[in-house]
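A brief tutorial aside. Many learners find it easier to grasp structure tokens once they have seen a single protein encoded end to end. The record that follows does exactly this for 3-Keto-5-aminohexanoate cleavage protein. Read the sequence first, then the structure, and try to relate runs of similar tokens to stretches of the chain.
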Amino acid sequence: MRRADKVIISCAVTGSIHTPSMSPHLPVTPDEIADQAVGAVEAGAAIVHLHAREPETGKPTQDTAVYRQFLPRIAERCDGIVNITTGAGLGMSMDERLAAANWAKPEIASMNMGSFNFNISGAGARVGAFRHPWEQPYLASTTSFILSNTFDQIERGMRELGEHGTRFEFECYDVGHLYNLAHCVSRGLVKPPFFIQCIFGILGGIGPDPENLMHMKATADRLFGNDYYLSVLGAGRHQFPLVTMSAILGGNVRVGLEDNLYLGRGQLATSNADGVRKVRRILEELSLEIATPDEARAMLETKGRRNVGF
């Protein structure tokens, strides 16, 4: 693992897991997504990981017309690295999943590294009444849902986005996903340095235990040596303990309302910037420095903010 002098904070601004009824602070409209992304960068995030939502209902969408409403505004107002999802919303085709990133040609795009059971049916357990008809069926359907990321799908995404010079946040939800990435590396589909996001706490993926983080890191060390940067995402209440552990081990961190709606027990975060400020305080108390967007660009060897499509 490459141990950097400074820690990259990624912020996942809205995602496709949480629904509007779970928090009044989840950004849904283009205005809200743009404002919260800029706020996260101003608070210390080097990277903002972005999904889009239908403005009227908050339902996940990959419609480029929606992305066009907020991506240029983010670029005008801050220098953060934009990371576009290719995981998108549940059940979307690969054409839909890749549409936004193929249009935007971002510095970074996410790349899920394997298929697995993806059960988020329990995410709305605290919701008394849903605001929109799509929310409850969307969550309940995941008890029989497989998030499909076959080798053909992964290769297609790598090749299409690689033509734009886009690099990847490799999202690994289990140990086997690291081996899938190693296979892609052996075939020459992607080049180092690899930005590996280890994800803990999604039902169907690896559990949120500290021992699992150590196992994922040890496996990645064997497979990729000094060719990768570790980053960690912990779902829900596991967010801050696990990202702190990543930083202590020399890795990087991801926070944001996609992954966790709360700052503490019973305390909703009022913005994405809240989570960035909290993790920044933790890191600085550990005498760790925070990477600026340009420092993160140099670490990850991205193509630069002037070479995107928006």
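Self-check: The two ends are 32 Å apart (CA to CA). If you spotted this yourself, you are ready for the next section.
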